[in-house]
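S.,

Sequence below, as promised.
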Amino acid sequence: MRTLYLWIIATLLIAPFLVVLGVSIGASKNIAFPPDALSGAWYHELLTETEWLLAIGRSMLIAAIAGVIATTLALAINYVLWRTGSGFAKATFALGLGPFLLPPIILALGASLFWAEIGWYGRMEATIISHGVFFVTLPMVIIARGFAALTDEVIEAAQMMGATPAQVFRTIVFPLIAPYVFTGFALVAIISVNEYLIANMISGFVVETLPIKIFNNVRYGYSPVVAAASMLFVALTVTILLILSRITDLVALFGTSKDN
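The prediction came back faster than expected:
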């Protein structure tokens, strides 16, 4: 019975992707599944039309820089907390958990008002900074697991040999927590690329990311290119997760045993 339930759940999860995939490779300009004829025209349009390429490029750029910002903040907060254990560091860590505890619409509205007040509404920089700050929670929690796994013996041995705090971090600490840092960066990038609400409320339609471009396309007239763009999202996410699973123990990084 358990196996049957798992197959039902898997089918319900995979079925929508199969429909979107079928529409994206169909020759018809309308939603048709299964497709009457196969064609790669919609992927060709997605990857050759200037407006789509600009939207993809903006999303990739925003995701990359936001990932760096979020990971850097998470690493700094965790390092100070690990080194000092001060109350201020603990309070900052707790504050960093806030974005995932609040509804996205509240974050988006607050950010929109803030950037409008300082005159940055509609700028890509505002979207980048907002994504970097609001998505800091995930890398912060993941990197915290990396610092929790460090053993005092290794650090004390390096300090006894005369290593400075900077040398200890560069040669011992960072290499040990690097898988957690890379994982945090990749997950922030995935979330940023797929994020619509915050980007839309901060930049409107001035900075048209790929999710905003997809929404505009659906709003003003459906095209199967939307299905192709959606599958690009899926392919990008799956590829990043597969790469992470190859270079890191992705399951263990989330604190889950493979035996469970």
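The longest helix spans residues 50-84.

Coffee later?
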